[in-house]
């Protein structure tokens, strides 16, 4: 995601090979996460872990810095709903970023 952020800031042509390859890698990563959470409540199955915390950040807060569309990943959107519904997640977000709207879809 970091590489995509940098490349987008460079205002490269849409057909730039590095930009095309990086977008492809990001899309494949989203596809993997979408497939994983299709049949699992969390990334490690039924247990909420630090992997969910880091992924939750990348898929929500990080989107303020690098916009991307989650409409092609319906399972990821449902997963974010589960993660963000956790009371501890809500408390942490309110403590770290009071009043920030969560980008969940």
Please tell me about this protein's structure.
The chain is mainly alpha-helical and 105 residues long. It has a single domain, classed as Up-down Bundle (Glutathione S-transferase Yfyf (Class Pi), Chain A, domain 2), CATH 1.20.1050. The protein contains 5 helices and no strands. Helix 1 packs antiparallel against helix 2. The longest helix has 22 residues. The radius of gyration is 15 Å and the shape is globular.
Could you provide a short overview of the structure?
This protein has 105 residues and is mainly alpha-helical. The protein has helices spanning 2-9, 17-38, 50-59, 74-85, 87-96. The chain has 5 helices and no strands.
Overall mean confidence score, pLDDT: 88
Portion in beta strands = under 5%
Uncertain regions spanning at least 5 consecutive residues: none
Distance between the termini: 18 Å
Radius of gyration: 15 Å
- Listing every helix as H and every strand as E from the N terminus to the C terminus, the arrangement reads HHHHH
What is the overall shape?
globular
Query: What is the annotated CATH architecture?
Result: Up-down Bundle
Helical element count?
Answer: 5
User: How many strands, what sense, and barrel or not for the largest sheet?
Assistant: none
How much helical structure, as a percent, in the residues? Answer: 55-70%
- Helix/strand-derived category reads mainly alpha
């Amino acid at each position: 995601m970091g590489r995509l952020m940098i490349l987008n800031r460079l205002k490269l042509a849409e057909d730039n090979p590095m930009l095309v390859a990086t977008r492809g890698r990001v899309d494949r990563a989203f596809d993997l996460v979408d497939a994983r959470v299709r049949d699992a409540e969390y990334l490690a199955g039924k247990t909420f872990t630090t992997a969910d915390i880091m992924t939750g950040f990348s898929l929500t807060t990080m989107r303020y810095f690098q916009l991307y569309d989650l409409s092609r990943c319906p399972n990821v959107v449902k997963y974010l709903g589960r993660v963000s519904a956790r009371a501890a997640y809500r408390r942490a977000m309110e403590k770290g970023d009071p009043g920030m709207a969560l980008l969940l879809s």
